[in-house]
Model the fold of this input.
Amino acid sequence: MPAEPAESAAPSGPWSQTPAPPSGGPPGRREGEQDHTSARAVLEGPDIRRALTRIAHEILERTKGGTDIVLLGIPTRGVTLAERLARRIEEVEGRPVPWGSLDITMYRDDLRLRPARALGRTELPPDGVDGRLVVLVDDVLFSGRTVRAALDALGDLGRPRAVQLAILVDRGHRQLPIRADYVGKNLPTSLRETVKVQLAENDGRDAVLLDKRADTPGAGRERDGRDPR
Amino acid sequence: MLHLISAADLSHSDAVLILDTAEELAQVGDRSVKKLPTLRGRTVVNLFFEDSTRTRISFEAAAKRLSADVLNFAVKGSSVSKGESLKDTALTLEAMGADGVVIRHNASGAPYRLAEWVRGSVINAGDGTHEHPTQALLDAFTMRRRLGRLADLRVTIVGDVLHSRVARSNVALLHTLGAQVTLVAPPTLLPVAVETWPCEVAYDLDSALPKSDVVMMLRVQRERMQAAYFPSAREYSRRYGLDAERMARLPDDAIVMHPGPMNRGMEIAAEVADSPRSTIVEQVANGVSVRMAVLYLLLGGSEPALGGGER
Done:
């Protein structure tokens, strides 16, 4: 998927929010996402690199060396970010950090509002999450619904000692009492804007794009501030 | 596509979506909580007019792992034994608000009729000698897991093709997925017009085996046989049964499948059924994952995710 602008689990967002499926996938999800003509890059590659380096150090500081941490990314771009963070922490501390992915599709609160969608991948490190400090990683924090779903999904996989949240971009407009522990950039946005994170591994380049939403009359999705499909 | 009645209705992308979804859902069985909240509040009715152990239990396990409410309806002990028609049974289910109906019936076409009478999704769990699409899906899933691909896979289906809904569904689905299917059976156990099916037909098992990546042995369905299709069980077994000696003719990485229930000693020898090449137990485990995927894709969203064609 070329772009995933925001939190994935709002009650009535479009298909384009879904984590990319293993292959193929239901129709309709990518429409209109190729057009970045009016998009403005608010973060470029070096900014993202610096933000991740800082987050890596903050995680180490806050967890006092991070001996029992597990980084779990939320597909698709959260997984890429989790891998990058794990690599940075390894560079600093000189020991590998377990990381994995946590698909939240089956735990979303808007499943009934859209056609069933393809699933992302859930892959835990071999030692699991029991008794460890899990840092959830995602690209954009928006409504908070993805994170709520992730907490539910995590609860079915084991019992971490604690759970923290690392996010590349916090764009505000929370609909649930959820906050991030580590934030790459706070990006004040209006609901009429979209935020798209691009990562080299997924999209061929690193950037955070801010765009105006194309107005579709009667789309009825405005309160989520997401792309109409 | 609201219903899953025939494997032939599935497009290539639908079939791959089901297999990929099943691959992810297979992990649920290994977790500490073997349950997903996805179908909470939805009702799935198991409507079995014919005996079945693994299919009914498999559907029940699949629905329960997705947190659906499951109502089991067995013909024995129900009003059907008092003469209730399929339509009246369907209307009763409709009144109970079934979101999904899993039906097995001894009459070919019963799920198709049922689909006209109920609003929920109808899933065919075997109708007469017609189709058994979830069995074909779990067979394809098992092949893909074991051998890593389906395209150009050489699959030989052996035995009672005439009475086998499993064979029909497998031929349709495997053709869609790009595998090459060969049916091997005595001429009396091949259906009329089998030459129009998208597969090859052969009569000699021994020459087919060296060219097979997968051998699927079908059960000899004695209960459906109204006539003498072969002289004796012993003769059938000698010509079309898979024993250790025949299995040795297979390529090294070939697998042996059987949809169950097996007639050990008839179409498959016990030593073959229990050999490491046999995927029979795996097929049962994979059945739950595949049926979860089908239930999720048909019932999980606002509308079914299948039937999208090649978009």
Q: What stands out?
A: The mean pLDDT of chain B is 92.
